[in-house]
Amino acid sequence: MLTPRSRSPSPAPAYSTSRILHIYNDSKLSDRHATITDADKSHPLYTLDQNSAGLFSKKPHMRISSSQASTIIGAVTFHSMSRRVDLEIHGHEVAFEPAGTLTTSYEYASLAFGDSLKWKRDGWGSNLVLVNSKKEWIARFDAASFALKKVGKLEIGNGGIAGVALDEIVVTGLAMVELENRKRTHSSAGAAAAGASAGAGGGCSC
Fold first, then answer.
1. pTM value?
2. Which are the contacts of 98, defined by CB distance < 8 A and separation ≥ 6?
3. Residues 75-86: tens digit of each pLDDT
4. What's the DSSP call for residue 197?
5. Which residue, 124, 127, 131, is CA-closest to 107?
6. What is the pLDDT of residues 87-108, one digit of tens each?
7. Helix, strand or coil, per DSSP, at residue 104
8. DSSP state string for 154-182
């Protein structure tokens, strides 16, 4: 179980429309620990503890905790031989699965919203959006591409969403962000290997 930072809890601000959460790595050199704050950037809501990627890394690979309740509210496990991702949210197992064979989108049966929700890319780049079965957006993730410590911001469309529903958005959103990170890492490694192979075989044999 994660131990939240010792900070006096302050009342969360009221919201009339959307709500912004900010995601920060706790170290410039490591993405293993992160903090998710409220809109004021100083009110911690969640902490993320992440194991390094790898075939023999400890499972679950991600654990998300409530900063105030000091309890783990979600866990994420990836599989090396499958695109399926196993989630656990407040003790309930949730299947986070590709929305199709060739798509990069992931969908799941939401316990909090009673609907099928889908995380997908929002335009080009690393931005993501969560939509319901009516294609109405529920949340958006905007990546902080050039920041040292900031991962990005998570915008909740309805600022009144809280409790288990907010926990679910955060857990599934962080899982989707990590999926995108792993895809980029895999693509970069593949490109580097291809380049090295081409360089090794590029000499003239005449």
1. 0.81
2. 83, 84, 104, 105, 106, 107
3. 999 998 899 999
4. H
5. 131
6. 999 999 999 999 999 899 999 9
7. coil
8. EEESSTT--HHHHHHHHHHHHHHHHHHHH
